[in-house]
Amino acid sequence: MDTDGNTPLLHQRCNFLQKVALYLALENEERESKDVELLERRINKEIREISFGNKVDLDKSIKRNICKNKKCMKTLTSKSIIIKLKTNNKKQHFIVRTCKNCGFTNRYLLKK
């Protein structure tokens, strides 16, 4: 962990950047501007660099709103993902989220 006391500041910075990226993503759904999309992706890359470079654990809500594909890095909104509910052989339920932009899939276990 970060020992110099900057961890709360880094969390605040990541939260602010995530809000900006989400705002840009929602506004860009109507306009579809490439410049805004590039800015949104750059902000998401910055969030990842902050978390990995400083060993800061991000909140699940921040991590799950960014596509994990390094070439995509889009902010996931309701219009940019496909959500399905799947069950495996052990009767475990999963949420499967697929990015419409790149096709990258994430599976999250639903806990009882």
UniProtKB/TrEMBL annotation:
Pfam family, one: Rpr2
Biological processes, Gene Ontology terms: RNA processing
Domain of life: Eukaryota
Protein name, per record: Ribonuclease P protein component 4
